[in-house]
From TrEMBL:
NCBIfam families for the chain: RND_mfp
Organism annotation: Nitrospira moscoviensis
A single GO molecular function term of this UniProt record: transition metal ion binding
PANTHER family tied to this protein: CATION EFFLUX SYSTEM PROTEIN CUSB (PTHR30097)
Domain CusB-like three alpha-helical bundle intervals: 160-193
Keyword check for Ribosomal protein: no
Family: Belongs to the membrane fusion protein (MFP) (TC 8.A.1) family.
Name recorded for this polypeptide: Efflux transporter, RND family, MFP subunit (Modular protein)
InterPro entries: 3HB_CusB, Beta-barrel_RND_2, BSH_CusB, CzcB_C, MFP_Cation_Efflux, RND_pump_MFP, YtkA-like_dom
Domain annotation CzcB-like C-terminal circularly permuted SH3-like: ranges: 313-372
Residue intervals of the CusB-like beta-barrel domain: 230-305
Amino acid sequence: MMVALGAWFVSGGTRQLASSGGSMAGKQSEAVPPKDGMADMSMPAGGESNVSQAYAMVPPARQQLIGVTTAVIEERPLKTTTRTVGRVEYDEQRITHVNLRISGWVDELFVDFTGQSVRKGQPLFNLYSPDLVATQDEFLLALRSRDKLKDSPIPEVREQAEQLLEATRERLRLWTLRDAQIDEIARRGKAKTYLTIYSPVEGYVIDKQVFKGMFVQPETRLYSIADLSQVWINAEVYEFEVPFVKTGQLAAATFAAYPGQAFHGRVSYIYPYLNQEARTVKVRLELPNPQLLLKPEMYGTVQIDVNRGVQLALPEGALLDSGTRQLVFVARGEGLFEPREVTVGSKIGAYYEVREGLQPGDRVVTSGNFLIDSESKLMAATNMMGSLGMGGIRMEQAQMGQMDMGEMPRGTPERRKATASKKAGDLTLALVTEPASPRIGENLIRVTIKGEGGKAVTSAIVQLTYTMPMPGMMPATVPMKRGKDGAYEAKVNLGMGGQWNLTITVQRAGQPDVNETFSVTAGGGGLSGMLDK
């Protein structure tokens, strides 16, 4: 289905709005907007620009036909959810390794398999260490010396005995003996052959490298114990999602093992490097795990809540992104759509963040804009082609010689109005030109539309299409500005002398379109320039 859309085009260089017909004298015609208050539709001044887009005029009936919908630009909270896959891992800050500070032989093993749960202070194994036995003997000797010398009349002797005792006690502490164990040795008065090693934390044994009868040294890692009351989930997010993820954001994870149950936590860290092969960035979540339902190496689905706050938002369907520019069509009222370049930021859910080009209250096309865009470009190209035969390159100077369009003095009879009237359906159209004999160059075309009983039609959308009946001449269409008492007018440039066909299209809500054609002769004299057809 082909739908014809009227359009204005944006000329290069000065970037002013112009009607489709160019002046033979190189002067642009003034395309009168379809309603008052539309003067701000002129494009901003700037450098050279290609003629690539046109203002599109789409009547309401045709909008419905092509499925045009619009939405108002407004500020709204932009929220979405980033979904990815994550894997449960140990919280590295809750892993404890058990090593010794002395060497010896493992005599008896109490915690003897991986995965076993342990309590803080629970015995792990007994150790026989000759060095430790010797140090205990030194401690007992220092203790007996202190007891013998505590009543010495010489203060220095008493003090040295105390210092020696404290030094041997501290040495036992450095070898991981607790004060209770040291006090027990002092009470017994005899060195312990075996030293019991206790768990420093509560958790689960995730690695065990100790066996009964094994000789161990300080560099030997005996156990790794993990506290699983809190776990990490490492997830991968794509490059384009990285700006959305911040530390502290809420997150949730679901697992196939627990259908219908979500585990909640927060983003705790974003890794500072990229996975070169997958083009993803690792994100770490921290989740409480009081019931120990989450097991390391489990895979689940991660959802990270993204909240960008209140932003000026553009519906995703409104944006036409060619890769070199971003375009929307702004509804200007009465079927007129303005192509406007915009700058958008991130896409959050179904909306883009608006950075430049739109203001709150602008109404943009959200569907049907692809057809409007293609027709807009087509009309812009058509209008450019038409301008080649209608004065855009001053063809009259090459073919007809230079003409001075201002040679007729103001106030002469030629500048008076000429009127022709036609009956079209239930309407009567009275067309007037100023000057009365249309001239080569700018002319004012005014049509007064009345219905049954001579009642003025004031709420129609009216367009004027003008062309010459000759091969290769492309028609140009401009909207006619609504005036008083059913009058509509537009200024056009008739680029060369000869007959011009003026077609008036009247569109009313709930009524069929009315089209009526008048003919005028540019460069003629008197009322003969107006010919009914």
